[in-house]
Amino acid sequence: MRVLVVEDERNLADAIARGLRKRGMAVDVAYDGDTGHEAAFVTRYDVVVLDRDLPGVHGDQICADLAASGTLTRVLMLTASDSVADRVEGLGLGADDYLPKPFAFDELVARVQALGRRATPAAPPVLEVGDVVIDPARRVVTRGGAPVDLTNKEFGVLCELVKARGAVVSSEELLERVWDANTDPFTTIVRVTVMTLRKKLGDPPLIETVVGAGYRTAEGAA
Fold first, then answer.
1. What's the count of helices (H) and strands (E) in the chain, helices before strands?
2. In the CATH hierarchy, which top-level class contains the domain 2-119?
3. pTM of the entire structure?
């Protein structure tokens, strides 16, 4: 899941980002409205965690512009106010959810995960290809009933490939969906991650390389 945190309180923004990354999400951070507005329209995020009172472009404007664009990106609006009127106003601008500060981090994570599930076309709660079973909610992978221990990035790549249902997914698409903006676009990290993922999944090979195009799940595994 790709998440953008737009929050001008740097300590809070960084804490949110660290926590979400520990849950396996790819997270970018913007500390003002101008940067956040630009980032939200340059990259397709699953969820934007958006502070309402931002310097530069106001959070209300970012939210309204995202809603007007028709994007599938979901918005979780943060605010220091807990009044019913503010919540109603925020939701009226197009926010998908609303969380007053201070908040429990576990609640924020649960809300982000719930919004993330609504940001992409509906997928079954458990993904299967061949004898590989993936439970995204519990972040568990098994092959032939045996557990497969994957890193967060390996898990993310596997989910993206399986959800594509045999269609080719390019390295660029995997880089955008699984890693964050700090990753060098010319890195070999996607190739290396796919290589280690293949090794952990074992035989018969589940992932095929389509030369010059990207990767897909093997036809015989479907």
1. 8, 11
2. alpha beta
3. 0.67
